[in-house]
Inverse folding.
C-alpha cells in the first residue's frame, strides 16, 4: 500500500476516535475506515508511538478507544479539539498560496505556536500529511515588501475605522499616475494579489485598485459611512479579478475538451448542454474582460465564441495578431501531420 494512503487512513482513524464521545471499538473503527481489525490494531500502536493520547477503557467487557484531552487542555478550552489543532497544523501547506502577501509572516507565526504545542513525535507524524495534500500557489505579484506591508496595515486600519485615505495610484490600463481620495470598503485576495474596493467620490462609484500599485497612502482624519450595498462576493461577474457589467456569453467546445470543461465549475452562472457529436455548448453571464478572453484563447482551436459577435471578432483579432508573430515562417516549421485528425471548430461570426 502507498505510504500516503496509510497516513491518510491513520488520520481518518484519529478523526473517528476524536468524534466518538463515548469511545469506539476496534470493530467499529474497522467498519468505518474500511480495513481489517488487525490493521486497526497496528494503526493504533503507530499513533500511540507518534504521541497521540489514545487510551482504551473497558465498558461492560468491551474495550473502547477514546482521545485523552489531558496535556492539551489549554487549547481545547479555547474551543479546539485535538484533531482540529492537528488539521490546522498540517494545512499550513494550503495557506502557502499566500506566500508573498503581508499575511504570510503572521500565518507562519500562528503555525509556529501550534508546533510548540505539539509533541515532537506527533509533529513528525503530521509532517507526513502535507506530502499527500498540497496546494499550488498562484504566481505571486512582485512588489516592495516593506512598502506593501505598510500600505496594507494602513488600509486595514482605515477600513476598520471607516477613515478616508488619500493615495497616489499608478493605473496599469492608462499608464498614468493619479491622486485619489477614497473610502476604503474591503480588501480582497485574488489571483496572487491584494485588491482594494473603495468608493471614489470623484466618480460616484466603487472602483478596484491593485494594492501593489499604490505608490503613497495616508489615512485622513475624515470619516465616512459604510456602504449601503456591497456585493457579497468579490468580482462576482468575472472569471478573474475584474469588475464590470455581466452579459450573456455562449461558447462551443470541441468533443476533445468537452469532458474537461464539463467537470469544472468555471463560474456560478454557467449552463452546459452536451451535443450529439460529443461537443459541448456553454452559456455564461460574465463581464467581457481580460480574464474571459485569455481563458477562451487558452483552449486554442477547440473552442468557438457563438455570441456575442463583438467578442468573437475580438478573439479572432487576437488570434490573427498572434499568428503574425510567426509569419513569415522562420527556419523551423511544425510537421503538417501534427494536427491531423484533431477536431477544430472554425471561428464563425454569428449574430
Amino acid at each position: 500500500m502507498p505510504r500516503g494512503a496509510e497516513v491518510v487512513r491513520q488520520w481518518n482513524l484519529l478523526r473517528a476516535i476524536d468524534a466518538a464521545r463515548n469511545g469506539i471499538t476496534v470493530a467499529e473503527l474497522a467498519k468505518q475506515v474500511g480495513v481489517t481489525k488487525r490493521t486497526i490494531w497496528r494503526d493504533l500502536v503507530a499513533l500511540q508511538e507518534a504521541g497521540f493520547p489514545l487510551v482504551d477503557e473497558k465498558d461492560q467487557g468491551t474495550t473502547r478507544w477514546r482521545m485523552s484531552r489531558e496535556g492539551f487542555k489549554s487549547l481545547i478550552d479555547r474551543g479546539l479539539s485535538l484533531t482540529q489543532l492537528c488539521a490546522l497544523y498540517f494545512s499550513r501547506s494550503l495557506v502557502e498560496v499566500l506566500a508573498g502577501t503581508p499575511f504570510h509572516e503572521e500565518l507562519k507565526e500562528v503555525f509556529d505556536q501550534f508546533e510548540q504545542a505539539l509533541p515532537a513525535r506527533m509533529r513528525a507524524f503530521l509532517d507526513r500529511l502535507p506530502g499527500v495534500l498540497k496546494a499550488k500557489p498562484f504566481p505571486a505579484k512582485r512588489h516592495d515588501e516593506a512598502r506593501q506591508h505598510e500600505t496594507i496595515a494602513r488600509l486595514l486600519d482605515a477600513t476598520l475605522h471607516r477613515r478616508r485615505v488619500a493615495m497616489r495610484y499608478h493605473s496599469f490600463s492608462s499608464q498614468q499616475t493619479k491622486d485619489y481620495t477614497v473610502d476604503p470598503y474591503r480588501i480582497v485576495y485574488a489571483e496572487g494579489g491584494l485588491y482594494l474596493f473603495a468608493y471614489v467620490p470623484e466618480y460616484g462609484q466603487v472602483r478596484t485598485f491593485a494594492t501593489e500599485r499604490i505608490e503613497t497612502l495616508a489615512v485622513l482624519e475624515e470619516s465616512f459611512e459604510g456602504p449601503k450595498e456591497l456585493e457579497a462576493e468579490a468580482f462576482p461577474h468575472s472569471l478573474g479579478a475584474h469588475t464590470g457589467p455581466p452579459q450573456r456569453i455562449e461558447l462551443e467546445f470541441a468533443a476533445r475538451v468537452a469532458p474537461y470543461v464539463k467537470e469544472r465549475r468555471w463560474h456560478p452562472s454557467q449552463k452546459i448542454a452536451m451535443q450529439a457529436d460529443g461537443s459541448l455548448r456553454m452559456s455564461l453571464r460574465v463581464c467581457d474582460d481580460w480574464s474571459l478572453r485569455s481563458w477562451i484563447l487558452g483552449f486554442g482551436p477547440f473552442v468557438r465564441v457563438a455570441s456575442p459577435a463583438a467578442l468573437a471578432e475580438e478573439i479572432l483579432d487576437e488570434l490573427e495578431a498572434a499568428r503574425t508573430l510567426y509569419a513569415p515562417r522562420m527556419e523551423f516549421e511544425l510537421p503538417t501531420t501534427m494536427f491531423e485528425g484533431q477536431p477544430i471548430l472554425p471561428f464563425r461570426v454569428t449574430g
User: Anything to note?
Assistant: The mean pLDDT is 81. Residues 247-339 form a domain with the Alpha-Beta Plaits fold (CATH 3.30.70). The chain has three domains: 3-131, 145-223, 247-339. Residues 250 and 306 are 5 Å apart (CA to CA).
